[in-house]
Amino acid sequence: MQVALARRVPAPEAGSRQKRFVFLLLDRFTMLSFACAIEPLRLANRVLGRTAYTWVLAGEGGREAVCSNGVAFRLDMGLEEIGRDDVVMVCGGIDVQQATTRPILNWLRREARRGVTIGGLCTGAYTVAKAGLLDGRKATIHWENQDSFVEEFEDVKLTKSVFVADGNRLSTAGGTASIDLMLKIIAEDHGEDVANTTADQLIYSSIRTDQDTQRLSIPTRIGVRHPKLSKVIQMMEANVETPMSPAILAEDVGMSTRQLERLFRRYLNRSPKRYYMELRLQKARNLLMQTDMSVINVALACGFASPSHFSKCYRAHYQTTPYRERGAHGSGPLGRLSI
User: What fold does the segment set 218-329 form as a domain?
Assistant: First the structure.
C-alpha cells in the first residue's frame, strides 16, 4: 500500500495574512473531495506568490488515515486543541457512521464551543450534524445520502446545493464540489481575480455557486425535454411518502390520464405507475442501506400502507426482500453508496 505524505508548505512571510485548514480525515474518506479541497489552496498560494494558506492533516490516533481507494496518508496531529482561527474540514466517505466515533464528536463539539469554523466534505456533513453542529443551519450532502440524512437530522435545513456556507458551518455535496467552496473562500479572502486565476490553473472553467444544485436537471437526467413529463416526474419525486394518483398528476399538468400513460410509454417505456413505484423503491433501498430505520418505518416513508405489500414490491424489483437486503449490507452504513 502506497503511503502519501502530508505536504508541508513553506513558512509564511512576516506580517502576511494567512489561514490554516485542519483536514480531519475519517476512516475510508473519499480522496476526490479531499484533493479538490486542498489543491485550490496550494494553487492560490502559487498565484499570490506567498503562503496565504497552510494546512495539516488530523485524525483519531494521529498516525495514519486510509481513504476509500486504499491510499494511506500520514497524519500531522491527533485530536488536539487547534487555533480559534483555524478552519476544520471533516472529510467523510464510506461507512461514515462507523467512522464517526465518540472521540471525534467530542473534539468537534469542543472546538465548536471555541468558535472554530467547521465544515463537512462529502459525507463529512453527517459527522458535523451528528455532533449537533448543524441544528437550525442550512447544509448539503451527497444526493444519494439525502433521504437518510433527512430522516435522522430533522433540525437541519438540508438543501440540494453543490455547497452551503451558513455562518461558520460549511458543507459540500462531495466530489468536485469542494473546488467550488474553496474558490468561494479564496474569493472572499483575496478577491475574485485570485479565485478566477486559481480556477484557470485547475482547468476549471465553470465555477458553481451555492445556488447551483448537485444533480442534473430532470430533462437532462432522463434524456427527454418535455415540459409536462418533467413536471410530473418532479411532482413524483416530491411526493414519495404520500404518492399521488395518475389521475391527479395528469390533471395538474392539464392532460387526461390516457394522455399521461401514452407520454410515459413513448418516452420512458413504462407506465406512470411503474415509474413512480421504481422511484419509491429506490428511496426505500437507500434508507435500508444507510439508516437504522425499521423495515416498517421505511415502508411508511416510501408510501407503502403495509410491510407485506412493501416486501412483495421490493422482491419483485430487486429479487430479494427488504430484510435480506438489510442483513446483506448491515444496518445503518450511511455513506456506503457515496463516491
Answer: Arc Repressor Mutant, subunit A (1.10.10)
